[in-house]
Amino acid sequence: MRPLAYMPDGSEGTIVKIIAGRGLTRRLYEMGFVPGEKxxxxxxxxxxxxxxxxxxxxxxxxxxxxxxxxxxxxGN
Length: 76
Description:
single chain
């Protein structure tokens, strides 16, 4: 398990938990970032936001927020 921000480009995984305050956790849940949901990293390299594919939608989330989303890689 590792933060979503550390997943390499093109990798897939399943969200295990979110380690954040109540407000951010609620906002992420509303965006579809819930435990058990599959997520694919489109672009994570370099500075700037992490671009992910979740529930057939592309989303850009800040690197700090991506550090709070714990993911289990498909290869683990």
